[in-house]
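Listing S7. Sequence submitted for prediction.
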Amino acid sequence: MVILDGTVVSVALPSIQQNLGFSSSGLAWVVNAYLVPFGGLLLLAGRLGDLIGRKRVFITGLSIFTAASLLCGVSQDPGMLLASRFLQGTGGAVTSAVTLGMVVTLFPQPKERAKAIGVYSFVQSAGGSTGLLAGGVLTQTISWHWIFFVNVPIGIVAVLWAWRVLTSEEGVGLREGTDVVGALLVTCALMLGVYTIVGTTDHGWTSAHALSCGAVALALLPAFVARQATAPHPLLPLRVFRSRNVSGAMGIQALMVAGMFSFQFLGVLYLRKVLGFDEIHTGLGIFPVSVAIGALSLGFSPKLIARYGPRAVLLPGLFLIAAGLGALSRVPAGGSYAVDVLPALLPLGIGFGLAMPSLATLAMSAATPQDSGIASGMFNTMQQIGAAFGLAVLSTLATSHTDALLADGASTASALTGGYQFAFRIGACLVALSLLLAATLLRSPAPARQTTIEEVPGAENAAP
């Protein structure tokens, strides 16, 4: 539900603009107002989960998200909607930051953990793709308000279910990890960084706005690292990055997601603006990717990871993603979905279904129970940074290339297609770079010792 809300709004933007009177520049902030707090608060929320208990943080974030969804649905003016979206992104960050940490804590045995991470990866990716379909159906059949209202009953049930099923944990305590200065530094740096990236669509990469905000964000990051190296109770213990698998997986994920965003965003535009698909058919056109991701994440990937290791599964996954984006870079202006688009979607879905569980396994491979929340928050933070970077860079490159082709006399369809093709090639290069890094940096982790149920704290109280 949280990941779905990052994409469900996309197809409803024209209706929201017409109904609430958004300006063209202000409309983008219906999306950005969600992304900025989501990307900026993941690290802080993840560490809070370690300190005061992940169940408590998860339920709090989900409650905020559900209440904010109701406020979004009843919004009657742009200001109320943007404020509600900011609150919704805050709740989404708090919820998402601790989910992967709970998974690795609840499933200590390698085979069961691989299965659980496969489900987690499927839910994440399916949420993004399903959002496009759900947004189109709800907007066309009822109204845009219902893309937010639908979260309310689901959220209430999820809160009550989580309260009953999840095992309570106290955390290590605020005295063992309170770092107010570090929290302020990293939250401001991440929020300002995401704000800078998403704002380049309006201001440009070389504008005074982008350069000044980016410089401040970059200056805050080394200050945060220095603080963590000297603080008695750091927010982000630097020991998390001693493992080359953990640090490498974080960077590789950012590159992979940035490249994949060329498909998630520009692929939708190609279907809409070039092939003439409506909202519902666009969502259906993207849906094969979710099916492929689900089949791999839920069925094959956990078994392959358990047998061959996450690195061996990750490499062919990244190769397939790069190949799928390369195939999309050849779609013609007068193309056919069945001939030109669908054959490229299958390797994308299969590759992502292999790569995402493998990266999550590698990123959490060195996380202790005390640090699993911050490791989970960091993993999700890199995903959001990659998405924001990919959206800003690839959409800007596609637009500038399209404008150049139009200036040369190309037709609108040909110019749009040329811009999308160029962005798909750049996306393929980003994923190819992540493949190179994975092949050279990552190592297969040592097999973990099988943990019996008696050794898991609180397992005797866990619900079946």
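Caption to Listing S7: primary sequence and predicted structure tokens for the chain studied. Residues 372-407 form the longest helix (36 residues). The mean pLDDT is 79.
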